[in-house]
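SAMPLE LOG
Freezer: B-3
Tube label: C17
Construct: single chain, 94 aa
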Amino acid sequence: MEGKKVLRALISVGLLVALITVIFVSQGHDPNNPHAAIPKEEWLSGEKGHGFAVLNNQNPQEQCYECHIKQDLGGKAYCQSCHDQSSVNYNLPD
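STRUCTURE (predicted):
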């Protein structure tokens, strides 16, 4: 009987620690930003950053562009200015 109480107490403490760990870790995650785990500079200019994602994404204008507009991360002029600097010839949808 005493062994069952100890086991229950250990399980309860373990679950409480796991819950606290999940809450603590999730505080640094922005659910609206799928890139939140990657530092901004690495995302913008790293070898597995924006350019890599765009080149390997089958449909970036539908999967990325609309979300960027909703998040107010820059519209067509903002994206196009970067494309012009990089000599990328691409016309974004209206």
